[in-house]
């Protein structure tokens, strides 16, 4: 199914079952947040897991996607689908420019350059009038999808988010298993070799970066509609750090890792929110623990224990 | 009043001085990052947090121990340097055999823990730290009034920067360090305890950050986010300068501080982004940085 292996198909069906059952058991808004963060982490994982480039600036694409979606919905009253698409397009265009600069270097420098460029985007958002500065864009109406589905109903909104998430998830899966994805993996394993075989590795890296940014923008836009708000937090570098944490905890380069990571990180934030800065401390401690003790992440470790590629 | 390019002289010189001060911190922090990177092959994301700890150490020494500014200028880097050595021994040393990115992730995690803990106990509003009496007041330079403390910061930073440069480039200890950076196994074969050299280098880089933190304490209020505000810009500085040379880090740091200061005079809206714009231009024209070595 969709090029999944047998074990991945089972995991996928399990995920689908949970997606269907959970809203009747858990708070749908929490689940929507999980799905948005999961899509964001999957998009980020496309870069770190399959191209081997650690971007420390993905909040820029997530946040700008959120701003554009929120703005177009609030002031142009466009349909939610159009607004999300515009968020994705924003991520892609921004990804084209920033990626063009960042892919000139790799490894640690790539991380530092993406961080610095995202910081530039942050300062731009701080100054630019359309973002509403410190207040952000608030009270974004969810409106009616296609003119007749009332998104103010949390369950209706939930299914829209599910569709967006699954579309993004499967698109990433399709990308990874396409010939294009194989070239990406070749670049990750041995870039000089890929170059010597005649692949323009920079072009491949840039296209992968743009795709990753586009999906980050989609995730940001969807999040903006669910919560009716787009703020500076979305473009702040702590959001970039959070998506790194989510993916690392779930398992870098695994198919389901970012989703599991999103569940754990979002749940943790939810329960620790009342303890103020202990969220940050815990996140940092998880980083340290992951790097020291289990670098494969939750899904990676389970996969290794069961000898399955998840 | 003197007018320069239609700008009142005192305003221009005032912003230039502010730029030099920011530049002094950029230079000290990016130099520490470069030294650590050269030896450990790790980008120390916790550098900003350790800078902040330096400022807090000075504040605590005064608050709890009654120890003033000048002793703190020596003690705080020592304390935080030892803390850095403990971190290196316990955690960071486990990263050397792994992909460089894991070192970055580990130190990023450490910075979250450190900043989170300080925010829990001291809030994020900031604590005041008095300028020492001897450096109070301002001096009339003829073309502007210079607050004495600000002049002291620029002077102290310059002295520390060039002292570090001299130690690394002109002494036998520095020669050993540079040799170990180039080829660690060979230096070890000559009987140098390379792991210890690495540990001490990290401690030294951290002490440098803490020293900068003490200098910053009276200017910016002492608060858990003070490192955060600096470190992102410092990463851009490091990309612009390249991590090849100490002198390069000093020149780039001060240079960008001045550019930032001038932007504040002529086009204030862009003052926060100008360093990043310079980074974009440098990346487009010389991707390895102004002083970087080609990999």
| Discrete helix count of chain B | 11
Tally of separate domains of chain A: 1
Q: Stretches of chain A where pLDDT falls below 50 for ≥5 residues?
A: none
Q: Averaged pLDDT of chain B, please?
A: 89
CATH first level of chain A: which class? Mainly Alpha
Q: How is the CATH topology of chain A named?
A: ABC transporter involved in vitamin B12 uptake, BtuC
Helix/strand class of chain A: mainly alpha
Q: Would you kindly provide a written description of the structure presented here, covering whatever features stand out?
A:
The complex is a heterodimer of chains A (310) and B (295). With 310 residues, chain A is mainly α. In chain A, 73% of the residues lie in helices and 1% in strands. In chain A, helix 2 crosses helix 11, helix 3 (59-75) packs antiparallel against helix 4 and helix 4 packs across helix 5 (107-127). Chain A has one domain: ABC transporter involved in vitamin B12 uptake, BtuC (Orthogonal Bundle), CATH 1.10.3470. Chain A has a two-stranded antiparallel sheet. Chain A has helices spanning 6-21, 28-50, 59-75, 80-102, 107-127, 154-176, 179-189, 191-196, 201-227, 232-235, 237-250, 257-272, 278-292, 297-306; strands at 144-145, 149-150. In chain B, helix 1 runs antiparallel to helix 10. Chain B has helices spanning 9-40, 47-65, 69-90, 100-122, 148-170, 172-182, 184-189, 194-216, 226-241, 246-266, 274-285; strands at 3-4, 7-8, 138-140, 145-147. Chain B has one domain. Chain B is mainly α and 295 residues long. The model of chain B has no long low-confidence stretch (mean pLDDT 89). The relative contact order of chain B is 0.20. In chain B, strands 1-2 form a two-stranded antiparallel ribbon. Chain B has a two-stranded antiparallel ribbon with strand order 3-4.
